[in-house]
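re: ur question from the group chat, yeah i did fold both. here u go
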Amino acid sequence: MLVFVVCATVLIAGYFIYGGFVDRVFGSDSERPTPATTMQDGVDYVPMSPRKVYLVQLLNIAGLGPIFGPILGALYGPIALLWIVFGCLFAGATHDYFSGMLSIRGGGKSVPDVVGDNLGTFFRSLMRVLSLVLLLLVGVVFVLGPAKLLGAQTGVAAAIWVACIFGYYFLATMLPIDKIIGRAYPVFGALLLFMAFGLIVALFVSGTTVIPTLTLESLHPKGLPLWPLMFITIACGAVSGFHATQSPMMARCLPNERYGRFAFYGAMVGEGLIALVWATLGMSFYQSPEALQAVLAEGGPGLVVNQISTSLLGVTGGFLAVLGVIVLPITSGDTAFRSARLILADFFSLSQKAVIKRLYLAIPLFVVGFVVTQVEFGIIWRYFGFANQTLATIVLWAAAAWLIRNDRFQWIATVPATFMTAVVTTYLMNAPIGFGLPLPVASGIGVAAAAASLIALQLGLRRPRPSTGALAHP
């Protein structure tokens, strides 16, 4: 219990101490108008209360990510908790803060344009492709998973549920953000928090030994190495590039920059706490990685969620577990499609105030999404973790470039960007889906790539510029 309490305390204290430091380095300005107030269109640019923005942002970035990823990460043992805590504070929350605040300073720009303004045309184009692929993949997967579960629970064909979920996605993508997302998401966000913290309290009072094995060594039953796999496996809760596609949505709704730390950095810390809960539950409820692995082999993380929730919270817990496994992925899927529409709208410079112009973009997106549901994309999905963390790495480099050009303390972004460059490069070089090189060789290439990126940034972007928000490529 003490380990969990210390980790949770560090995360909460980190929000106030390190999060405050990041906010001061960036220079949030409460007197500076935000796009929510200067560009209101009643559709995507809609001022919301800071509390509502926080809860919507939390659910946008979370879904099942801080549940399933940490459950799989629990196989590695207690060291997973350290990655969640320090990854969240120094990488993930910083990443989410800058992806949101740079969007605000850029007039609500989507992540490809935020990155492109800071790193140039090549990265703008790369991020458009990477973001759209990632968003479509998330959207489609989060149709099929809930549809299959609903089909099993109700006896209604999964194909019918696919159509129903796509219908909801279409409405959530087309309607003004405050009509469905702004109203329902705060409730679901509160449910996510209640479920996580209700379970950890129930675990404590159940008499179960919390984190029975204290070690920093990998406990993975299959002998998988910590480096770099754990840093890819646990994304949501530590650092996730998907978040950068979501932050600009709330950047268009935040009424004042002084709430940026709460809305962006704070939502990521909230997700880190949820991830911490589920990693602890995975390690404690089954008492050994082998026992956890056996349940995962039988029914995946969904079965783990159901067993833990039903055992600790009874029938109500079982109901919430099933509800969560159905609702939470849907709440990530709909915002994935909405973000994809906004990215395309920015690319084509197409105002989204008129319904017909939203249809121009939404219909092709959903046609492509439906086609993908008919294709076996298991191979593509294996690249998701790599693509997700690569996107996060690029956003961190963009933040570092902004800090350098504005003569700010760059290392809050440069250090995590360098580390994540080593992670994703090593993974690509070593993984069977990549080049399959021996781990020592792959690690050497990863470290070299990180060092080269760091040097390139320091040598290539040392030019002063006016502090007017988004950067122009030199």
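okk and heres the other one u asked abt
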Amino acid sequence: MSSATINDLFHALTIGTLSKHELERLYAGLSNFIDTFNSDRSIKSCLINDIYPSSLKIDIISEIVSDCKHTRNFLEALIEFNLLKTFVDSREFFLKKLRMILGKIKIEVTTVNTAQIEKLQLVRENLENIWGENLEITFKEDSNIIGGLILQVEDKFFDGSLNGKINELKNLNLEGEL
């Protein structure tokens, strides 16, 4: 079966049958599943390896997403059709589709210091002013950017870091535009 089948299953699950609250729970459940899958090598190995029985995989999924029956049913169907690995490989596509349905925007903010709570709150407020309040914001620390911010807004990348500006100037200089 192809990934089109996963898309068909996903489409059937998300179009018209679930309330916004249930879609929110589905999104939270899939996000939790992906986080657990990415962070636990033994779970990852078991779920994508054909030598383990489906019943064991379904038990693992039930433990991870026990509080969301729609997520559990979707993942169990993927296991039944041997499509879980294909789904995991394209997980961001499906999470992004769910965010679009829910009107959410995922933003990753990279800054020099994530310990400055007041600064992060100011950044959050400014992002909400630009993109609205239904944001999924994560903050990441990277001392290599020297100062400023780097934003990843869904698929778009905005480099407002000092390191990024220095690199821009270097590139301009190399091209003889200075």
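fwiw on the second one: The chain has a mean pLDDT of 88. The beta strands are 105-111, 135-141, 148-153, 156-161. idk if thats what u expected
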